[in-house]
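Example record

One chain of 216 residues, shown exactly as stored in the release files.
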Amino acid sequence: MMMLTPDDFIRALDWMGTVVFALSGVLIARRLQMDGFGLLVLASVTAIGGGTIRDLVLGIRPVFWVTQSHYLVLIVVTCALAIPLARLLSRAKVAWLLLHADALGLATFTAIGANKALSVGAPAIVAVGMGVLTGVGGGVIRDVLAREVPMVLCREVYATACIAGGIVLTAVHAWTGQSLPAMLGGMLTTWLIRLAALRWHWHLPTFGGLDPDESR
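Predicted structure tokens for this chain:
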């Protein structure tokens, strides 16, 4: 019987995150009634945007999808399959699916990004930052192209969930020295916090109530 290695499992998580984030791009493109090219662009930047920025910051050349073209194939296939399915869903279901697909992709890519930083010898605090960047980077580009305020810049518990997941991941990795349990712990932490924020409408405090003169 063939056994999955930790590297195989991590690769599967990465592919899953790519599909899920591409799906979130498709759903927003569908809501905005974009054409096929716009849909593909939005799905692509969502799925590989954060990882591209991460690799550039870490000095990894070329970036991952240049030498591993199956990521691009996954995005195209996801778009092709999601388009007819999205047409069958109501606006309410699309909104629900978008939020939950985004939460799963956020958790997966946060763990992938933090683990990749650790694998190249980055310190824990940098690994947490790379996890956040990988998790939110593609979504920020997606929202800017869709002319929406990125969730990471709003009151949403979004990047905060990534930070918590990154801290758990680096702590477990330091304790066990193993990538797989660290990634699972970090991914689960990010995902549960994000889902709880969606369920109970958690928000971060804002400074919107301050008078401009008083803030100087």
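Notes: The chain is about 75% helix and 0% strand.
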